[in-house]
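ok so i was messing around last nite and threw this chain in just to see what happens. nothing serious, just curious
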Amino acid sequence: MRFFPYELQLRHAFNLAKFSRTTTPDVQVEISFDGVTGYGEASMPPYLGESVESVTRFLSSLNLEQFTDPFRIEEMHDYMDSVAEGNNAAKAAVDIALHDLTGKIMGQPWHRIWGLDPALAPVTSFTIGIDKPDVVRKKVAEAAPYKLLKVKMGLDNDRELVETILQERPGVPLCVDANQGWTDREKALDMCHWLKERGCLFVEQPMAKENLDDAAWLTERAPLPIIADEAVKRLVDVERLKGAYSGINIKLMKSGGMHEAYQMAVLARALGMKVMVGCMTETSCAVSAAAQLAPLTQYADLDGNLLIANDRFRGMQIVDGKITLDPALPGIGVALL
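result:
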């Protein structure tokens, strides 16, 4: 295993309800076996609590050479969890590289190994961050190829932001991510009704992740599905959120990689919950890995690679707004540029 830091440069400042940034720290991982190399990455937006230092320290502590077979992914996950708790992005980097490696050895992409039909992958949303109206208009123009826009919310100008977007693209379907920015459940319910009238499909993490009572109250009354994001990380979280949320947003950097993400999607579907697959700002490596799961989901937000200016890979493509997987690329479906 080899790894190195790789800072992601954002095309625009990424403005959320609680912070703004122009870069994302990242660590790229390569795992080789019998002349075949798999690629993975750890992307670390600040709220995850991980850093280049913590990721490299965790990766340095691993001894993967004790495993003579790269297909022993379940066992390697148990080993990583035994080394240290948390460190989910670091574990995801190893997991993604292992899935890429084993998929390449088998000569198959992971959506096919999982028995999924790539034609069932949904359209992806394109994120419009919180910003001044003139910048928002520019972002909306750049998002012309995308059929679903994701609006970041959580400040006092939420309605103005939506109106600005709809002035530029009347009738475009929207989804909303408040990133825990709403604090009053009555106002949140009013906002859900207002958004429903303007073509919104769902609302993601409207209130604080710890506030399950208000989430359940809102989910019961809202005219839109309420999707958990910050409130869900790994498999153990899924069942306790049933009833509090309509569905979950699975991200590889939270789940520890593809192995547990797949299990989360299967469990959520069995519980009658909606499934969304999302991403951080990432290269096409992690985004394409997440896209292998997309045919299992109703919603997708896989635009993280489109928001950066220094991608290292070609991989998952967006064709007519829809996630499109290349069957000729095995593993997670990427190749170095």
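not much to say yet. The chain is about 35% helix and 25% strand.
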